[in-house]
Amino acid sequence: MSQFFIFVRKEFIQMFRDVRTLMILFGLPITLVVLLGFALTNEIKDARIVVCDYAHDTYSRQIVQLLAANPNFIVQESLMSHEEIDRAFRSGRVKLAVVFPAGFRDQLLHTRRAELQIVADASDPNTADLLTGYVESVVRGYASSLQSERAPTAPPLIDLNVRALYNPELRSAVNFVPGVIAFVLMMISVLMTSVSIVREKEFGTMEVLLVSPIAPMTLILSKLTPYLVLSLVNLAMILTLSATVLRVPIAGSLPLLIAESLLFILTALSLGLLISSSVRTQQDAILSSLIGLMVPTMIFTGFVFPIENMPLPLQLFANVVPSRWFYIIVKNVMIKGTGFAAVWRETLILATTTLVLLLAGYKKFNLRLS
Fold it and tell me: Which has the least CB within 10 A, 94, 221, 250, 265?
């Protein structure tokens, strides 16, 4: 037993001596609990909605006031045509629109029944369902107040006519396919690239590179090019499966989608290069890629948990996750059918991120063995 306890003591000493092991044992669980505790929520708060009021009567204004007072909504603006509503959805400014038909008050007073149209961005069907339910709750509460005031035995009915944009069938695949594209391209590209340079150090082939007359940038590009080609093959496979098996067609420009995907792949490859230049072993590179990127990519991309529902510090942190911006691009181009004018800001962010990561990786890359 004394030998047993000696070896147990030795293992504890070895374990606490390794900082990376401690980070995995203690840092990762704490990080996951904190992040998921704040990010996992079924509620949607401060969703931006617009109002299109053709009625301009007392009842419509009272309902708009109730919606504005609800913590789940921010009534951003009032629009006066369906064309303006479509433009607002394509720009990504709003999640839902409430349309009051002309004669709304007269219908409630004379026929005790009126119709209210709800236009929802169904590219995220779960969010569309929740927001529609919130509006329905507000409208039913208002109808109940009219019932108690005017005709207790004959409650007025306000029917909701829901129009689901971009996803009339409310299929979840429409929301998850863009997220899966972002997740797979990020993880595969970073993981493949992160072990490329450090493998040369581990296998002792870096000496061959040291004596070769190749420039550092040429060597870096030669490392990235094969993984760029493989990532494009993965993209083609994902898009083919999405269109044929999952029935998620590409509504926008396919060349634009491929060009944006190529930019995102370059971003991921540059990040993998930076990781590869910063670690010493392939194990470290794999752990850094999987643990350091898998959780942020899953949480802060936006296809699993709405980012706008998170606390402000987490929302700010999500801005540095490249997959978040690519997810927005794919949803706009692939699902909504928008052009470059709708995604130029996200494209600029990805291009800047790629340039910064590539320069950092180039600076970190050292042809001399340390």
Answer: 221
